[in-house]
Amino acid sequence: MTKPHPALTALLYGLLTIGAVIALLPFAWVLFGAFKTQAEIMSAPGAWLPRSFANLDNFVTLFSERRFGRYMINSLIVSAATVITNVLFATMAGYALAKLEFPGQKMVFGCVLAAMMVPYIALFVPQFFIVVQMGLVNTLTAVVLPMAVMPIGVFIMRQFANSVPDELLEAARLDGAGEFAIFFKIFLPLVGPAIATVAIITFLNSWNYFLWPLIVAQNQDTYTLPVGLAVASQAAKSTDYGLLLAGAIVVLLPVLILFLFLQKYFVQGIAGTGIK
Amino acid sequence: MKHLAIAAALLAATAVATPFASAQDAIDDSPATGSLQVWIGGAEGEKLPAFLADFEAANPDLTVEVTQIPSDQFDTKLLTAIAAGTVPDLVRLYSQSQAGLMATGAFAEVPAGLVDPDAFFSNTYNTNVKNGVAYGVPWDAYATIFQYRKDLAEKAGVSVPKTWDELKTFAAAMKAQGVEWPISLDVGYDIYNAQGLNEFVHQNGGSFIAADGSAWTINSPENVAALEYWASLITEGYASADGPKFLDTVPWFTSGQIAAKDNGPWLEQWLVEANGADWVKDHLATAQVPAGPAGSFSALGSGSIAVLKDAKNPDAAWKLARYLTTPETQIAWYKAFGSLPAVKAAWDDPAIASNPLLDAEREALQTAVDIPQVSTWPQVGTYMGQQMELVARGQASAQDVLDDVQSFAEGVGLGN
């Protein structure tokens, strides 16, 4: 392959840089806005940069007056529980659906696919009734339960499990390993990338989930971050944009950190499933 | 909205079985006890707990738990809770959406003698009355008023417009002075367009709904003429069909790109936040909205307090409702939060009476007109708001559009 002309390379880089800057502008505005006062944001024509990056009032208010610490802990508990249950149950279900033979296997997989196609909002009220009947209203358990096994996770694991050679599992079986030993010692180490994908997808879903946690919560002690952000930023007849933008940064930060570390798996997950 | 529709549909199924509200016993003067759950949307929930310290001190055996709920999801959450029977004791409702909630039949009748209906602006009280029975008490009230740049008006040598004709003279003089869009109207703003048109319709002697609430009267000749007048402000170049929208009002108003708008009293506060109190003193003036052939009518907005039929502590809930609607508490809440009182007597307090910008507000509240208080108004109003844009852009006639909205409204009906 011949090397492209240096001018062409420069042009390409130039265009990509412009594209990247345009894509980043809204994020920059959010970041800068987090350091502005309401008057700065509302003033015309307005400035890009805040008067001072040392103005941390918005962040301080969120954590000292608007209970963001509580919401953050709730969100972390919910997301951690969701990721753990999904990874555990989805790998087990994926393994069973791909590698074990049992009556009704196809039908079970069909149900998983069908469940993926039902919009969650259709299940919303029935799910709330169930939670009420179980006496779980206003608990984080109720927030996690409907998300504990997401069909998309089962689907991804089942597809990935198909690519694990039967011979490996057969060999282990001949060596006298039981089903659980095969699952934990042979199968799990082979499906690492799929586990990462499921973990990322479920983390993002549960971290950003808004409506269900709001409905389940009966007081603010059980609010998660997105719900807390929605109430924290409301001001009289308007919105406190400084708080809203600072809150958005707080909500975004863990996702951003996660992305930096797991970039490879993010891309793989999106490319492999077509789902963001 | 989609969420709301689903919750509402489910609710419709359960609401049928609910029997008529039984009249509450009178509420005595003894201190309230037990625990009281309050759900409140928006920023008020942030301020209310501290504000209730006095009430809690007077009722030492009562614990009030206030839960702040994102206001745009308040109805969804409350409807789901009503359907599942996990309701709080007391909620705060908005006149824009409370008809849909009240249609569920989940609210308790206001006990006899709890409040004096005549103490409130009558239009705010009537928002809560269904078939002669009140299901809530007004808490706060606002009316749109004509807010304009007095410095620009002075420069243009025009005084505040009092009639539709004068409004156009005012706008033409402003335009000659270089104001790009002298008047600001809500155009790309769905249901709020319709709420804005509701003012013009009443100024012209019309109404979207029959006086007894029994039928839609959207395409009446008065309404068509009102929409024509509204659209003429745009087609004649006095207002833009493209803005400003909502918060953009502040920079447009500040830069003099627009010079006047029918807006709620909070515009003053927004401008103070953005430009400072001195700027507001030098630039902003308020007046009654210009009168049409039938008079000056502005748009009413109000908030109410209601108690759920399934409340666990209705006695304490009503006692809190009574407390919040005394003139003293109303004025204290105005000072703490800025919500204008629904109780007329509270307006005599110097905190309000001494602000000249609120004189017009007080007068406007006497006659301000509500949106149609039927549960289908959100659908009808949203559709109307979208169709009005066609008239504003000269793509359809007022008659055709209102005929279309009328048949849409008849299809949707009046709800329950």
What's the short version?
The complex is a heterodimer of chains A (276) and B (416). Chain A is mostly helical.
Please tag this protein with its features.
heterodimer, A: mainly alpha, two-stranded antiparallel sheet, 14 helices, 1% strand, flat, B: 416 residues, alpha/beta, D-Maltodextrin-Binding Protein, domain 2
User: Tell me, what is the CATH class of the largest domain in chain B?
Assistant: Alpha Beta
Low-confidence stretches of chain A: none
Distance between the termini of chain A: 34 Å
Specify Rg of chain A, calculated over alpha carbons.
24 Å
How much of the sequence lies in strands of chain B comes to: 5-15%
> Cα distance, first to last residue of chain B?
18 Å
Total domain count of chain B:
2
Average of the residue pLDDT scores of chain B: 91
* Structural class assignment of chain B: alpha/beta
Q: Which consecutive residue ranges of chain B, at least 5 long each, have pLDDT under 50?
A: 12-23
Listing every helix as H and every strand as E from the N terminus to the C terminus, the arrangement of chain A reads: HHHHHHHHHHHHHEEH
What structural category do the secondary elements of chain A indicate?
mainly alpha
